[in-house]
Amino acid sequence: MTIWVENDRTDPPWNLACEEHLLTARRESVAMLWRNARSVIIGRNQDLESEVDAALAERLGIPVVRRLTGGGAVFHDLGNVNFTHIYTYEGGHEMDFAPFARLLTSALGGMGVRAELSGRNDILVDGAKVSGCAHACVGDRAIYHGTLLFSADLSQMEGLLRYSEEKYRGRGIKSVSSRVANLNRWIKGMDVAGFMGCLREALGAGAKRYALTEADESAIDALCGGKYRDPNWNRI
Q1: Predicted pLDDT of residue 120
Q2: Which of 3, 107, 133, 208 has the fewest CB atoms found within 10 Å of its own CB?
């Protein structure tokens, strides 16, 4: 059974704690859409200073929070929609996230967007990246999550994130803003709330709606305070 978790919080540390709680405390498959206020979310093993202009983030009052999955640094704001898929991983084979990723591209197709998977971690539209994904396993539980840029502030993203020149040399890519795009370039007449509603219909079909209980929220509060708000976690 899959549960669809309703989450309208926009506090970055709390939302990352919520994901970890659902990963470790629940046994059902989980699907969730959520958004963060302006923030930079870095991968589990990333070096903060080489990936993020931390001084600029501090001047702008933008928190930098470390997630439990690997991968690159990403910029979040209320124009970016995050998705989470959690399930029990039986082992003995490579983790396959393609089925859920295909649900995403199918949902975008239903909105008139021809999206395609690129490797295991990106979703592209007309060659531009609109989604980046990451994953991790904790025991027999797996998490696959990522971003869907809808109307994010790409100029602020470019200012905050640092990209290796070697990574893009020879590809004709001059900046992060030239290789990423917002989905509202292709989806007209819809705001981010309407976009999330369409995604819920497509991704949550057949799932049981689940509202976080007081016990869930108490556990998430504790994990958030003890880990995701801890400077030692976020700057290691």
Answers
A1: 72
A2: 208
